[in-house]
Write a structure and sequence with these properties.
Blueprint: H1 4-17, E1 27-32, E2 35-41, H2 45-56, E3 63-69
Parallel strand pairs: 2-3
Antiparallel strand pairs: 1-2
Organism: Roseiarcus fermentans
Protein name: BON domain-containing protein
InterPro entries: BON_dom (IPR007055), Lipoprotein_DolP (IPR051686)
């Protein structure tokens, strides 16, 4: 039996896997205390938005820190929080 964190992480990865708009191999996920931090880089703003929306709907997620970047964007410019 996995830990709560591993279970939430698995569900988050599954949600991203099934969304064809999200290049899941380019998005990294960390989970701590129900907070999901996403990082990586995608090509288009809607891909970043889709990833965040997918993750927010996963049971057990209390908040999302979206640090996914767009081309030419710094890590600071990508964070959106809750």
């Amino acid at each position: 039996m996995g830990s709560y964190r591993e279970d939430v992480r698995t569900q988050v990865l599954n949600a991203l896997h099934w969304d064809v708009a999200v290049p899941r191999h380019r998005v990294a996920v960390e989970v701590k205390d129900g907070w999901v931090t996403m990082s990586g880089q995608v090509d288009l703003p809607y891909q970043r938005q889709c990833a965040e929306s997918d993750v927010r709907h996963v049971p057990g997620v209390v908040g999302v820190i979206n640090q996914i970047r767009l081309p030419g964007e710094t890590a600071q410019g990508a964070s959106s929080g809750i």
